[in-house]
Design a protein that fits this description.
- By secondary structure, this protein is an alpha/beta fold.
- The protein folds into two domains: about 150 residues, Aspartate Aminotransferase, domain 1 (Alpha-Beta Complex), CATH 3.90.1150.10; about 250 residues, Aspartate Aminotransferase, domain 2, CATH 3.40.640.
- The protein is built from 15 helices and 17 strands.
- A seven-stranded mixed sheet has the order 4-10-9-8-7-5-6, sandwiched between helices. The protein has a four-stranded antiparallel sheet with strand order 13-14-17-16, with helices on one face. A two-stranded antiparallel ribbon has the order 1-2.
- The longest helix is centred in the first third of the chain and has 21 residues.
- It is globular and about 75 Å long.
């Protein structure tokens, strides 16, 4: 049975209907502190539609076995579903071949795999790894580790006061010493959408490979890695309405073929003797051990669900949400928005005058409104703006204008509580 048969794309509305969509998400029907849940923490992790939950249940209830090599029926079912999930991920990302899709635990593991298997063997003291000031810790720490291991240098492109990468500085930073460019597609802390196609194009002019952290982009933007031209692109399932502990690393096939695996074990081999091992071909040589089978199936169900809604429709709807909530927040003189780029995903990071971000989040929770507070695993971004933390409301396609109004009303209540 195919993944798509198990997780049908049951809705292709001509007009995006958020009321209908919300019915697909059981978590959104909850009451929190006697208030309907307004879940505005999607940049941290997104809720799951019933199709994903059902796909996971079916995988464990009826079709569970280890994948590959098994000749019995359950193993064949599981293998077909697992490799079918790879094909759906290929389509979702716009990869040219299923072999370019490596299942990983998430974006973090995808970046670490590239750092250790692709960059570390090719870099030496004096070389540079180029990132931006906008990055999540997952796209900083793995490169710091490679620099410590090799004597290379981590070079950081600054961002402007609006939270946009300075493209002029970026272009000037590219050189023959640049071993790789690794940048986020969308900032998790500010929502900035980076001009990654232009950044990849500039890097390619110098023959520099590129990795794009797509964790925040995949749930909100149409993706086409072939058109983008990057060498690597990585996403996390849990932000894409799928399970935790699963993600995808896209790698150009020629890049994957020249890379050595950085984990060893079962499945990633062709043959083993005590004297030597012959590795399997991509993507299997990077998937040591029993994989997250149900996770891959659930991720494929999530991708199929999002495709069924239509990413163009999702993007248009979320832009309306962002425009509306930004305008409402700008009407509050006590609120300061952090990150005001022209191109943004539906993320608003903000401060409330005289109130610590953690107090803002705690009081909003009492109103049934879930936001994220802290440095958002992006401490250098907080340092850039001279703040220890922000409150962050991040929207998905299942959020509503009414929830945006509730957020603003909640902030006004925070101001009342603190006598502002």
């Amino acid at each position: 049975m195919s993944i798509e048969a198990e997780t049908p794309i049951h809705r292709r509305p001509s007009v995006f209907d958020v009321t209908c969509v919300r019915l697909d998400f059981p978590a959104l029907q909850q009451i929190i502190h006697k208030e309907p849940l307004a879940y505005l923490d999607n940049a941290a992790s997104a809720q799951k539609p019933t199709t994903v939950i059902d796909a996971l249940s079916a995988a464990y209830t009826f079709n569970y076995s280890n994948v590959h090599r098994g000749v019995h029926t359950l193993s064949q079912r599981a293998t077909d579903a697992y490799e079918g999930a790879r094909e759906i991920a290929q389509r979702f990302l716009g990869a040219s071949r299923a072999e370019e899709v490596v299942f990983v635990r998430g974006t973090t593991e995808g970046i670490n795999l590239v750092a250790q298997s692709f960059v570390r063997p090719r870099i030496e003291a004096g070389d540079e790894i180029l990132i931006s000031e906008l990055e999540h810790h997952s796209n900083i720490v793995p490169w710091q580790m490679v620099c410590q291991q090799t004597g290379a240098r981590l070079r950081v492109v600054p961002i402007t006061d609006r939270g946009e990468v300075d493209l002029d500085v970026y272009a000037d930073s590219l050189s023959q010493r640049t071993a790789i460019v690794a940048v986020s597609h969308v900032s998790n802390s500010l929502g900035t959408i980076n001009p990654v196609r232009k950044m990849v194009e500039l890097a390619k002019q110098h023959g520099i490979p590129t990795l794009i952290d797509g964790a925040q982009a995949a749930p909100h933007l149409s993706l086409d890695v072939g058109n983008l031209g990057c060498d690597f692109y990585t996403v996390s399932g849990h932000k894409l309405f799928g399970p935790t502990g699963i993600g995808v690393l896209y790698g150009r096939l020629d890049r994957l073929e020249e890379m050595e695996p950085y984990q060893g074990g079962g499945e990633m081999i062709r043959s083993v003797t005590f004297e030597s091992t012959e590795y399997n071909s991509p993507p299997h040589k990077f998937e040591a051990g029993t994989p997250h089978i149900a996770g891959a199936i659930g991720l494929a169900a999530a991708m199929a669900y999002v495709e069924g809604l239509g990413l163009d429709a999702i993007e248009a709807y979320e832009k309306k949400l962002l425009k509306y909530v930004t305008r409402r927040l700008e009407e509050l003189p006590e609120v300061r928005l952090i990150g005001t780029a022209d191109e943004k995903a539906a993320v608003v990071s903000f401060l409330v005058d005289g109130v610590h971000a953690h107090d803002v989040g705690t009081i909003l929770d009492q109103k049934g409104i879930a936001v994220r507070v802290g440095h958002h695993c992006a401490q250098p971004v907080m340092d850039r703006f001279g703040v220890p933390a922000t409150a962050r409301a991040s929207f998905a396609f299942y959020n509503t204008i009414q929830e945006a109004d509730r957020l603003v009303d909640g902030i006004e209540y925070v101001l009342e509580v603190f006598g502002r």
